[in-house]
Specification:
Elements: E1 9-12, H1 16-27, E2 33-36, H2 46-49, E3 53-54, H3 61-75, H4 77-81, E4 92-96, H5 99-114, E5 120-123, H6 124-130, E6 141-145, E7 149-150, H7 153-166, E8 170-172, E9 177-183, E10 186-192, E11 195-198, E12 201-204, H8 210-215, E13 224-233, E14 245-248, E15 253-258, E16 261-266, H9 281-294, E17 303-313, E18 320-323, E19 330-334, H10 344-357, H11 372-375
Parallel strand pairs: 1-2, 1-12, 2-8, 4-14, 12-19
Antiparallel strand pairs: 3-7, 4-6, 5-6, 9-10, 10-11, 13-16, 13-17, 14-15, 15-16, 18-19
Helix pairs in contact: 1-7, 1-10, 3-10
This protein binds flavin-adenine dinucleotide.
Flavin-adenine dinucleotide (FAD) is lined by residues 12-18, 36-39, 43-47, 49-53, 176-177, 205-209, 213, 228, 230, 265, 309-312, 334, 336, 338-342.
C-alpha cells in the first residue's frame, strides 16, 4: 500500500492502543484514517510481549471503569470485529502476605462492589485451599476476581487492524514517523521515512516511545520505558487448563497457565528506565528461585521461552488520554503503565469520542488528561506490579 499524502487523522504506533484507536475512529466514520507502524508487523513491541492478563480490580475508580468497559468489549469482540479475543475467565487471585496490602485491598472492596465488579475476599486458609500446589503459609488474605483472566494479545491487535481496514483505515507497517509538522502552532501532519502526510489531527500511540514522538512537537510526554521479562516453562500437566492467574503481590511474582506449561513474570521494582530489551539473566535467576519457593514444581520443569519487553510507565501509573492542550490537533493515547492490553478497548473508544465529540460520553476521563502532571494533580494506583 502506498503512503497517502493526506489524511484526516494519523495515528503513530501500531500496537494494540493505536489499532483500537483506528478501529473506533473508523467505526464512527471519522474520515481518512492512517495508522503508521515502523516495524514489519502490528503489535510487535509491548503488545506482542505482554502476558495477556485482563482484570477489573484496581485501586482507582477510573482504572476499574476502564476495565469494565474493556472486559465487556472482549466478551463481544468476535461479534464486533470478526476475530476471537479468546477471553478466558480463569480469574485473578491476588495473594496478600503483608498486613498493609491486605488492609489496602480490603478497603477497595466497597468501590468494587458498588461498581458491580464481582469480587471474593478469601482468608489465608481459603487461599491455601485453592492453591494446594503452592507454598503460601504466610498468606494473610486473597482477593479473587472471577471475571478476570486472559485474552489473546495477537488476536486482539489483528482483530482491530482487520476490522478497521474493512472500515477504510489505511494501516501501514514499515513506516517510521520521524517528525511532527506544526503550522501556526497547530498540528499539520507527520514526516516519515517515506515522505510527509498532511493531517490536521495526529494521535501519539507509540507506547514506550511516546516521549520521543512527543518531543518531535516540543511536547513533554512523561512516559518512561521500563524493562519487564517473562518465561514460559516446559509442560506442567499437573496444572489444569483453568488454573487461575496467581499474583504474589508482595514480590510482584505471577503465574498463569500458558499452552501446556506455565508463564511466569516477576517485575523488578528498581529496574531503571531504559530502552533495552535483553533478558537480564541475574534477575531471571532471582525470579526462578522466587517462583520455585512459591510453586515447588518449578524445580522440575525447564524454561521453554524467555523474553523481555517494555512497560510504558507514567509518574502515576495511569494512562495519558486526551488532547495536548498546547498543540491543537495533537492527541495522546499512551502510558498505560503495564496494563494497556487489558484497557485497549476502552482506550480506543474514549479517545475516538474525545477527538470527534470534544469530550467522551462513555466515561469522564478528565483525570487522565495530559496536563495533570504539570498541574501536580496526580492519581495513585496501589494494585500495580
Ligand atoms: C512483559 C510484559 C508483560 C505485560 N503484561 C501485560 C498484561 O498481562 N496485561 C496488560 O494489560 N498489559 C500487559 N503489559 C503491558 C502492555 O503490553 C502494554 O501496556 C500495551 O501493549 C501498550 O500498547 P501500545 O500500543 O501503547 O504499545 P506498543 O505495543 O509498544 O505499540 C507502540 C508501537 O509504536 C511503534 N512506534 C514507536 N515509535 C514509532 C514511530 N516513530 N513511528 C512509527 N511507529 C512507532 C512501535 O514500534 C510499537 O509497535 C505487559 C507488558 C510487558 C512488556
Amino acid at each position: 500500500m502506498s503512503l497517502p499524502q493526506t489524511a484526516d487523522i494519523v495515528i503513530v504506533g501500531g500496537g494494540v492502543i493505536g489499532a483500537s484507536t483506528a478501529y473506533h475512529l473508523a467505526k464512527r466514520g471519522a474520515g481518512k484514517i492512517v495508522l503508521l507502524e515502523r516495524l514489519p508487523y502490528f503489535g510487535a513491541e509491548s503488545t506482542g510481549k505482554c502476558a495477556g492478563g485482563v482484570r477489573a480490580h484496581f485501586d482507582t475508580e477510573i482504572n476499574c471503569r476502564m476495565s469494565q468497559i474493556s472486559l465487556a468489549a472482549f466478551d463481544r469482540f468476535e461479534a464486533e470485529t470478526g476475530a476471537e479475543a479468546d477471553y478466558r475467565k480463569i480469574g485473578y487471585l491476588f495473594v496478600l502476605t503483608r498486613e498493609a496490602d491486605a488492609a489496602a485491598f480490603r478497603s477497595q472492596m466497597d468501590m468494587h462492589l458498588r461498581l458491580g465488579i464481582r469480587t471474593e475476599w478469601l482468608d489465608g486458609d481459603e487461599v491455601r485451599r485453592r492453591l494446594p500446589m503452592m507454598s503460601f503459609d504466610d498468606a494473610r488474605a486473597g482477593l479473587f476476581g472471577p471475571d478476570d483472566g486472559l485474552a489473546d494479545n495477537g488476536s486482539v491487535v489483528q482483530g482491530y487492524i482487520s476490522a478497521g481496514s474493512r472500515l477504510g483505515v489505511k494501516a501501514l507497517t514499515g513506516v517510521e514517523v520521524t517528525g511532527l509538522r506544526l503550522e501556526a502552532g497547530r498540528m499539520a501532519g507527520v514526516e516519515t521515512d517515506q515522505g510527509p502526510i498532511a493531517a490536521p489531527v495526529v494521535v501519539i500511540a507509540a507506547g514506550a516511545w511516546s516521549g520521543l514522538v512527543g518531543r518531535m512537537a516540543g511536547l513533554d510526554v512523561p512516559v518512561q520505558p521500563v524493562r519487564r521479562q517473562l518465561f514460559t516453562t516446559t509442560p506442567t500437566p499437573e496444572i489444569l487448563a483453568d488454573w487461575t492467574f496467581v499474583i504474589d503481590f508482595a514480590t510482584n511474582l505471577y503465574f498463569h497457565r500458558e499452552g501446556t506449561g506455565l508463564l511466569s513474570g516477576m517485575s523488578r521494582a528498581d529496574e531503571p528506565p531504559a530502552f533495552h530489551q535483553t533478558v537480564d539473566e541475574d534477575w531471571e535467576l532471582t525470579h526462578l528461585e522466587a517462583a520455585a519457593a512459591r510453586l515447588p514444581l518449578m524445580e522440575r520443569v525447564g524454561i521453554a521461552r524467555r523474553w523481555a519487553g517494555l512497560y510504558e510507565i507514567t509518574p502515576d501509573h495511569h494512562p495519558i488520554i486526551g488532547p495536548a492542550r498546547d498543540v491543537p490537533g495533537l492527541f495522546l493515547n499512551t502510558g498505560f503503565s503495564g496494563h494497556g492490553f487489558m484497557h485497549s478497548p476502552a482506550a480506543g473508544l474514549l479517545l475516538a469520542e474525545a477527538i470527534l465529540d470534544g469530550k467522551p460520553s462513555t466515561l469522564d476521563i478528565s483525570p487522565l488528561r495530559p496536563e495533570r502532571f504539570r498541574e501536580g494533580d496526580l492519581l495513585h494506583e496501589y494494585n500495580v506490579f
